[in-house]
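FAQ: What does a multi-protein file look like?

Like this. Sequence, then tokens, then the next protein.
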Amino acid sequence: MSTFGAAANTNPNKSYEVAQPPSDSISSLCFSPKANFLVATSWDNQVRCWEITRNGTVVNSTPKASISHEQPVLCSAWKDDGTTVFSGGCDKQVKMWPLTSGGQPMTVAMHDAPVKDIAWIPEMNLLASGSWDKTLKYWDTRQSNPVHTQQLPDRCYAITVKHPLMVVGTADRNLIVFNLQSPQTEYKRIVSPLKYQTRSVAAFPDQQGFLVGSIEGRVGVHHLDDAQQNKNFTFKCHRENNEIYSVNSLNFHPVHHTFATAGSDGAFNFWDKDSKQRLKAMQRCSQPIPCSTFNNDGSIFAYAVCYDWSKGAENHNPATAKNYIYLHLPQVCFCIRHACLSKTSNLSSSHEHI
């Protein structure tokens, strides 16, 4: 079995390292939709924010502020105007942090179990929170009670929103699709095309479907329209020799609508679903990548390199498991997207129609 050696390279892609990273594993990353402010949540109960500046191909990071939760923080989201950050986690609550005004964080959502994922829905001016208590709740942050509580078939693992489409991935491979124009009823319930536990979901930019990633090193491309089911397929990724790794993060590029995958094998790759091609395979880091995100114009790709707990506490060595956040400039690949397509591997050799 391959292992992540302490002396191995955590930064083989020569990305820019973010200053003063969290002291424990990083659970989520999100960029402001308006400016290059990056927020990270982590298992050390903290939510941190950095200002990212870029001069040509040189990128710098400056720690700006942080807040604390009572227990590990699992998820984060920005308000669409870039003024406010939401964070949720094992203390069963979501905090709202008015970052730009320097205000104090306040609790705006509560659950009966840890909050696993959250999403701000600007078209509704509501926050959605999904929990291991098997509920999805919608919140008007000015009120103490949820606007609506939606029962889920199992624990929430991941949420993605591209209004009016919302997809919630739960335990037992359920994928619950909502039309947010009628948010109190399920639009469709789908059994994942992947055979094992859902780890990540991402709505298509055109709202016509979604990606789903699982712990088995595979991604499913799923269209909602029954007439487009022949376009559905799955493909293998984040595998090496006989080792199979979780697909922890799926991120669509905000401009080109290509997408990135990041996995527990320590690799991140860029793909084009429409041509079924891999655009770029990056070098494997020496620790897992638990989360990743693009900035608002897609010129910076942020990813965390740290222990992701997929091999349990018994395989965690605090002396060697350092935590890093890196910033990669992917524009070279995306600017020459069509040139890349003619040279890179074709998914059609490994994809499966479902």
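And here is the next protein:
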Amino acid sequence: MKILALSTSAHRYQSSGLRTGMWLGEFTHFYDVLTEAGHEVELASVAGGTIPIDPVSLKTPVIQMGGTNKRYEDPEFMSLLDDTPSISDVDLDSYAGIYLIGGHGTMFDFTTEPVKAAVAHFADAGKIVSGVCHGPVGLLEVTLADGTSLLDGRRVTGYSWSEEKLARRADEVPFSLEEKLSAEAGEYTTAAVPMTKHVVVDGNLVTGQNPTSATGVGEAVLELLG
């Protein structure tokens, strides 16, 4: 089966101009789980074209140990990020689900209508909707065909405010993802210790809290695929 992985196209924080983008390990770890099991993961981005990578994602020790640097040094793999279709141009019906890749860039463009429409499309079809870290920004304010909110009564997780402060990005982001998810969802939970694995599965909705949860999200999606 095929899963659509969606990345941010935003490459800078709007306040400071510091570089951001996709958190690379959140793509590679999920990709490896699904493809090693025989499934396909195809990449798209909000605006299309080349996907920016958050430079910090190449330096974090836990991500390096997970094999991200090996992928970064593989030209064939990295070419997947070179010329991606925009989410508006993707045939959503050809995928079994969507995976919202994190990275701080999502705070600026996963709030847009094309992303919300794509997420609603998968949810209305009863397909898998998944995301990790800041990826669940794409779950906010998503209205389904019956007029209800995607997150109404649902259990979710996502990047916590304590992790935002630990990453020294609390002054850069336009809002607290923890606060928004807590307000919209039925239940928002986090790991007892920041930056440790935490994955929440609620039916076909799978969310992971932080970069260390990307493999776990992939494993949960794999189980749903059967």
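Q: Is there any per-entry metadata?
A: Some entries carry free-text notes. For the entry above: Residues 62-66 have pLDDT under 50 and may be disordered.
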